[in-house]
Amino acid sequence: MNQLLVFCRPGFENECGRELTDVAAWQGVFGFFHARPGDGYLRFSLPGPETPADLMARVPLADLVFARDWCQWLADVPLPDTDRVGAVLAALRQHRQALPACQRVEVRIPEANTDRDLGNFARKWVAPLARALRDAGLLVEGAEPSRYRLEVMLPDFQTALLGVSDARNRSPFSAGIPRLRLPADAPSRSALKLEEAWKVFLTPERAEDVLAGGRKAVDLGAAPGGWTYQLVRQGMLVSAIDNGPMDPDLMASGQVEHVRADGFRWRPQRAVDWMVCDIVDQPRKTADLAAAWFEERLCRYSIFNLKLPMKKRYEEWSSCRELIESRLQAAGIRFRLRARQLYHDREEITCFLERLD
Ligand SMILES: C[S@@+](CC[C@H](N)C(=O)[O-])C[C@H]1O[C@@H](n2cnc3c(N)ncnc32)[C@H](O)[C@@H]1O
């Protein structure tokens, strides 16, 4: 069976599967998914003539909102209590024809895993597994780097799911998660969300350009200041809009003007480079706000969160996207809208909207 393994935030398997089903259908590929709520991954089956590689060639992972990472599925391997490496080698030998030349292996565990022993085992297992795979000629060494990587997912001690990922279309981050450290002086953990968003939506070259010092930014729903802190770190001048108190150390930077006002109504007198918004409210209200800022050409780039309700999360995102796209198309504005559920997002997704003219 042609299958993909798709990794997502635990609890969002249904949204991830539905999105992929729709996106594949738009590309003329019929597929369906099987997921168990809370697993943090799903299987996407392609019963037609298309292979997972065909689908991955047509759909960039970066265009999907709920999929953190993915790979082509090869096999499910039952693991014995002893010689787990041997079981993986035997399974790969059977699938040798379908196995491209891989140079590396990545071992993953489910994001929701609470079994410490499994985490420790997975970490320690990579080195002996890679050595045995190399000795068996199942991982190759060569001067030319291979774009393929062998993927091993351990849902528990008894099973290994084997797959292959392709560097041209997989997450650039290990297990699909950028590892970030919260700076000691950051006013809130939310600071990590904006940093992750920049890492996910901007290449390092673009980041250097669009996050350059001296740019002007507005932070709607800014208190206590985690996002403002990140903007200040980039050397920007920030208007922080919130009725709540801002972190005093951040205010001492001299780069922040605190405005106590309603973020949905407040507008800058002159256009700024960035508008970011982390207000917890109905997603459509936030989408409406972002559309208004772009219609009025008040900013060039925006990062905002859509807090998705428990039910109909995929529908809610779809209608927010339609709202923004239809309004900006009607206003004759060239734009690009992307969205991802970030590792630091909980019941929400993060959008990046930019004006292209
Ligand atoms: C999740 S917190 C923002 C955290 C912030 N991004 C940070 O990194 O520290 C949401 C903030 O939105 C503010 N807020 C809620 N409704 C608002 C509104 N209508 N206008 C402005 N701020 C609002 C709240 O006071 C709260 O401080």
- The CATH class of the largest domain is Alpha Beta
- Domain module count: 2
Number of helices: 10
| Structural class category | alpha/beta
Which CATH architecture of the largest domain? 2-Layer Sandwich
How would you sum up the global shape? elongated
Mean pLDDT: 95
Name the hetero compounds present. Answer: S-adenosylmethionine
- β-strand amount: 25-35%
The largest β sheet comes out as: 7 strands, mixed
Walk me through this protein's architecture.
- By secondary structure, this protein is α/β, with parallel strands linked by helices.
- The protein folds into 2 domains: about 1-175, Alpha-Beta Plaits; about 190-355, Vaccinia Virus protein VP39 (Rossmann fold), CATH 3.40.50.
- It contains 10 helices and 14 strands.
- The protein has a 7-stranded mixed β-sheet. It has a 7-stranded mixed β-sheet with strand order 10-9-8-11-12-14-13, with helices on both faces.
- Helix 5 (about 190-200) crosses helix 7 (about 225-235) and helix 9 runs parallel beside helix 10.
- It is elongated.
- It starts with a strand and ends with a strand.
- The structure holds S-adenosylmethionine (SAM).
